[in-house]
Amino acid sequence: MNDQFDELWHWVTHRRGAHERAPVQIKEELEFVYNLISGCRSYLEIGTAEGDSLFVLAHALMTKTFITYVDYGERHTEFYREEVKKLLGNKNIHPHGIHSDSHHHAAIKEAHTIGSFDVVMIDAGHLYEDVIADAIAYGGLAKKFIIFHDIQMPDVAKAFDWYVKSQEYKNTSKFVSKEDSPYGFGIITL
Fold it and tell me: How far is C-alpha 79 from the geometric centre of its chain's CA atoms?
């Protein structure tokens, strides 16, 4: 058990009122990734929405870390994402946001201008074509891990398998906490 993770999970699951939706994560799955990337120095998240995973995983990283995210910046998620950014800022963690379609040339160029990241999380669009486009655009920026969220979704699983094969990655795994989990993670260790 990780007490810090448990506190973060509690905050994420209780930040919204009972009438709003729960986070799109399974505790055991997010904790696995949290432990996996613990101590990394830089993180790029493609698809942030409300910022739940951004908030939790930022705490797994070393202090003096660099975090970037690419997200549409939709109005209905803005309040929650800004809340996360403020809380992280209070801990001297200042995520750099690229508010754009992850496939847009300017977003890709900006991320590439920033440089490489220890971890790249792919979690924006969940159609096969979207996942492939994001993996191709951002996967090459990863130095330690490329992580695909929602690996249980057929299109994401198919895209993950294609990307792994096309790039000839050998060190891959999937972490799904239980057979009926709708989410899970596909992991490429570099």
Answer: 19
